[in-house]
Amino acid sequence: MTLPEVTSITARMPRSRTSLAPVLLAVGVLLIAMASYQCGAAIAKMLFPVVGAQGATAYRLVLGALILLLVRRPWRTRHAASNRRVLWGYGVSIGVMNLVFYLALQRIPLGIAVAVEFTGPLALALFHSRRWLDVVWIGLVVIGLLLLLPPGNAPTRLDPVGVGYALAAGIGWACYIVLGQKAGAVYGTDAVAWGTTVAALVAFPIGLAHAGHALFAPGLLLPALGIAILSSALPYTLEMMAMTRLPTRTFGTLLSLEPAFAAMAGMIFLSEHLSWLQWFAIVAIIAASAGTVLTARKPVSEPVMP
Question: Looking at residue 251, what is its pLDDT?
Fold first, then answer.
């Protein structure tokens, strides 16, 4: 799901009161979507010893693009050729962002990688702000990062290269938001399928160069499909259902829980147990993200995972 889809859909949402049951259903659907995405990331990390982060990225984007193309069939709608540069930029940002995020997962725990990546859209949301309250959210992000990067050789110290990759993924996420707005304004919902296809064209040669023939091992097809479905097709569909039933601020606030879901997935599937300081750092970043959404003067665009 792209950012422009979020803003266009929520802008048209009816503001009338709804019964509690549909809202609770939408909340449950969104929580399932977040869990699905992080389970997909955990499965991808399990394949790193065989095909590397590059090969896992190729699996997710290539198979995800095929699924989206079959479901969306975007070729049925014609768009102006002059706008393809924006679409290519949007797709490249998706490909690079996913690649550096998976490279981060090779070196640091899943929950921490997602928390650090969240600083990208947070920085974008706070960039033009001049309110004193936003200083609080910036401070929480700084505190969180400092706790994740203790000085010296502390037991909780993380691989700085992995953190660098996660920060790069955050920058890629911010670029994805900016370019996604422009691509979505022209291509609408078709931007998701076309953008993921461009991202697949970026990721596949890199994954093939790194993994070689191992990328085509029959035994890896099932987990590869699991990555594509859990990390792309299923959460995108569920998020669409939730967005049409939840107010923008509620959706954005709930989405701030993504790092916590990632940390839980890492603990359950990858045995990645975090220290209490690292958990506190993740909570600080979650609070900053939720606070940014809740205190915005006008509805903000939520940092939806691509």
Answer: 78
